[in-house]
Write a structure and sequence with these properties.
Beta-Lactamase, elongated, 49% helix, 2 domains, 262 residues, two-stranded antiparallel sheet, alpha+beta, 7 strands, 9 helices, 18% strand, Arc Repressor Mutant, subunit A, five-stranded antiparallel sheet
């Protein structure tokens, strides 16, 4: 494969094309999708297969994602995973209130899902994958993190991540969102109903470090109907869990995970 940024970019596009097409996509199909010469695609495929990012599937005479991709995802999830004691607080919250519990953190300018504790009866919201960014403007935990930032910084974060309208109730107007963040800052908790997914609701509170800085946000997600019935019960439980997570994170000295709290 040729040296230089252009060849690297083409290799990345090839990986994306295989991911989009699924197992069994052929080199010719990839070349058509990318508008690249077939020999160029073959060279990229050879290198990517050799390095483990793609696999050659002989049974279907095509290509698929390689297992190095899964390794990278696991590594990313491990880098944002909080300490075991914090994950235990999430697990206890999930079991005590019967709701999916989650923790989000900043990773540079992205708001990322660091951990989630759910089950078949209490599933996480669609699109919640550990190690991946979440739309901060549309979820309660994201609003908690945004509320801890200066307005200028909020603008920078939203400009980078975007503020897409995910439902008819998603706050996309900057003035309306600023007012909402002011309420979150004052109340010490954020609520969202139908803003991320129609029919779903969530509540989150900050997890503070020893110096009082908001380093993470802990929340639960339930159906809209259940939230209406249990709103205050959920808030009490989430606040208790966040306090436990903050204390546990500060006391943890195992060094087994970097975690969101120093």
């Amino acid at each position: 494969m040729e040296s230089g940024p252009s060849s690297i970019t083409r290799a990345l596009r090839v990986v994306e094309a295989v991911a989009a097409a699924g197992d069994g996509v052929t080199a010719k199909a990839i070349a058509r999708r990318l508008g690249c010469p077939l020999p160029t695609v073959y060279r990229a495929l050879g290198t990517l297969v050799e390095e483990g990012y793609l696999v050659r599937l002989h049974a279907v005479r095509g290509y698929g994602l390689g297992y190095r991709i899964a390794e990278l995802q696991r590594s990313l999830a491990a880098q944002v995973r909080p300490p075991a004691v914090v994950r235990a607080a999430l697990h206890e919250l999930h079991n005590s209130v019967g709701a999916a519990a989650h923790l989000v953190v900043f990773r540079d300018a992205d708001v990322v899902l660091a951990a989630v504790d759910d089950c078949t009866d209490h599933p996480r919201p669609d699109g919640f994958e550990v190690g991946e960014p979440v739309p901060a403007h549309a979820i309660a935990a994201g609003k908690v993190l945004l509320a801890g930032q200066r307005l200028v910084r909020v603008g920078e974060l939203l400009e980078r991540a975007g503020a897409a309208r995910l439902t008819s109730r998603t706050l996309v107007d900057r003035r309306a969102l600023d007012r909402e963040l002011l309420r979150v800052r004052s109340a010490g908790a954020a609520v969202e109903v139908d803003e991320y997914r129609t029919g779903q609701a969530a509540l989150a509170v900050p997890v503070r470090s020893a110096d009082g800085e908001v380093r993470a946000a802990l929340g639960v997600s339930v159906s809209r109907a259940e939230f209406t019935e249990r709103r205050w019960e959920l808030e009490v439980a989430v606040r208790h869990a966040a306090g436990r997570a903050a204390r546990a994170g500060r006391e943890d000295r195992t060094g087994a995970a970097s975690g969101p709290l120093p």
